[in-house]
Amino acid sequence: MENDPNPESGTSLSVLLATLGPLLLWPHGHADGSPAVDPEVRASVVWDPMEKVPSIPGGILLMTGASMVEGIASAAIEQAAACGYAAVVIKPRDLAEGAVDVSLAGGVQVLCAPDDASWNSLHALISAAVSNPGDIQSASIAGVTPGDLFSLANAIAAMAGTAVTIENVNREVVAYSNIADQETDGSRRDAILGRVVPDLPWYLARYRAVAMATEPVFFGQEHGALDRVAMPIRVGSRLIGSLWAFDDGGSRSQEIARVLADAAPIASLHLMHAASAYSLQRHRRGELLTAALGGDQINPGVALTLARQMPVVLIGFAQSDEPGTEIDLGRVADIIALNAEAVRRTASCTVLRSCVFVLLPRADQLSSQRIQQFLTASQRAVSSAASADLRCAYSGELHSAADLDRAHKDIETAFRFQSTEALDTSICTEDQRHRILLQELSEGTVAASDRLLPSVQRILDYDSQNSTEYASTLLAYLDTFGDNRRAAEITMVHENSQRYRMRQLTKRFGIDLDDPALRLITWLQLYLHRRDRRWRPLAP
Fold first, then answer.
1. Is 277:283 a contact under the CB 8 Å cutoff?
2. Contact 314, 398 (CB under 8 A)
């Protein structure tokens, strides 16, 4: 990141704060949101705790790493005051921890930014605001609330006299004008409805031209689309989006192009602001989900917030068991979050105990097919981008915090029996309740080697020592409710052989199959031993 100020750029601190808005930056200790001083701001400067504060009068010093070394941040503020800085930016957590002594700021305004705000984003936003002051003279555009892209699109469209679309660098439609009587066409309508521009060759050729341009680019009618003019949106040299408008092909073409060119610097601020604000919202939704799943009891405030989203569906992702493989869970969570937000814009995503969890609100409006599509898309995306295969499990509709807590436990249990049974598919915990309960039983003492019934232990020992298959025979018999014909099909022997083995079992090992409680525990212990591959089953 560059720290060099532009001598021809600058704006007042009050204008900068109004441009970025109180969500991202606010004066410390001033309840009305206005700074105590209003100096000229010339540059955004990223502070390196290991180096001396650079002398940049009119700079805004971003206090990264304020808590790294005791007293270093306070010394940096003193240096900033001596160098004529306009302001310093700190995080509230550093104030709470006592890492910064703001009394040393002197005439330098102390500003605060959210704890979870990205320093890189703040640097880019401040730099863009300082570099492009007053490019738009129209109050209709300058007065648009930071990050309100739809109002910005309408304001630009009103000035240009034609419909306008704002797209990000991924060719996604992030906002569009909706002024009555302004002309549109099918391709614009399709892009708005799909929220993304199709991957067609002639579209891609246009985007390549816009990405290379520094001025408005004109496009003639093609494939039934009306004439258009497009303007790249940049922060410095970095392309972050584009403005698109219809071109009437007449005397107003140059006027439309001029409006787009003038609006692009302001649009860059709005795009950056919207992206930063959305990143904060995503982070906070993730923290809420972590708080809901991470403790023994859900905080009442968290429960109240969750109640507004009910009914919800909880979805868990875990890595398929492959010895020696490690994955970047943070990257996996980002990929899954993007797919989740395509289903529900306000979806929450968090990483907890080596698993990624997603919460989809308003689940009563989601079909099981849509959930399966999301699971498949997420698995494919992670496999392609992170070279990792995922197992997933999901709940039914949840209507309370208690339901959410139970669903979380069920999903984690499902991951464990998916591992033991090699069921690497997406499963619904409601449909697999019996397997979940069996897994919970197996994790108790019912199947522990030192807790086996004497008769079961004798059978397993005898089979091991004599290469017999009494355990398989008995389990097949119990699996089929005592039907020797069906049991013989499972064990792949003649029915008479099956009956003979059962008589030998009763005589040799003393099993009383008339006792229902003994039948239940015998079946359960044999089933769990087979499931855990402690002995080989005869048939799949």
1. no
2. yes
Could you identify the residue written with the tokens 């930016």?
89
Distance CA 488, CA 439 (A): 28
With contact defined as beta carbons under 8 Å apart, do 5 and 55 qualify? no
Cα torsion angle, 289, 294, 300, 301, sign = negative
What phi and psi, each to the nearest 5 degrees, are found at residue 378? -65, -45
Tokens of 157: 């469209």
> Are 314 and 357 within 8 A, CB to CB?
yes
Tally: H helices and E strands in the chain: 19, 17
Q: Which helix (H) or strand (E) holds 189?
A: helix 186-194
Measure the N-to-C terminal CA separation of the chain; round to a whole number of Å: 60
Per DSSP, the three-state class of 238 is strand
* Rounded-to-integer distance, Cα 475 and Cα 460, Å: 12
Q: Report d(CA 88, CA 402) in Å as an integer.
A: 45
Cβ neighbours, 10 Å, residue 327: 16
Q: What is the DSSP letter of 185?
A: -
Residue 256, token pair as written in the block: 């439309």
The whole-angstrom separation of Cα 408 and Cα 295 is 11
What value does the CA radius of gyration of the chain take, rounded to a whole number of Å? 32
- Strand 355-360, strand 348-352: pairing: antiparallel
Query: In whole angstroms, what is the distance from residue 511 CA to residue 532 CA?
Result: 23
pLDDT digits (tens, 9 = 90+) for 487-536: 888 888 898 888 888 888 888 887 777 777 778 878 888 887 777 654 44
CB 392 within 8 A of CB 386: no
Q: How far apart are CA 280 and CA 300, in angstroms?
A: 23
Name the residue among 175, 133, 169 with its Cα closest to residue 151.
175
Task: Give SS3 for 62.
Answer: strand
CB 59 within 8 A of CB 85: yes
Kindly write down the DSSP assignment for every residue of 465-526, as one continuous string.
HHT--HHHHHHHHHHTTT-HHHHHHHHTS-HHHHHHHHHHHHHHH---TT-HHHHHHHHHHH
Which of 35-49, 425-439, 444-458 shows the lowest mean pLDDT across its residues? Answer: 444-458
Lowest-confidence region among 123-127, 216-220, 335-339:
123-127
Tokens of 347: 């979806």
What is the C-alpha to C-alpha distance for residues 344 and 386, in angstroms, rounded to an integer? 23
Report the C-alpha dihedral over residues 386, 390, 394, 400, rounded to 10 degrees.
Answer: -50
Task: Give me the residues paired with residue 257 across strands.
Answer: none
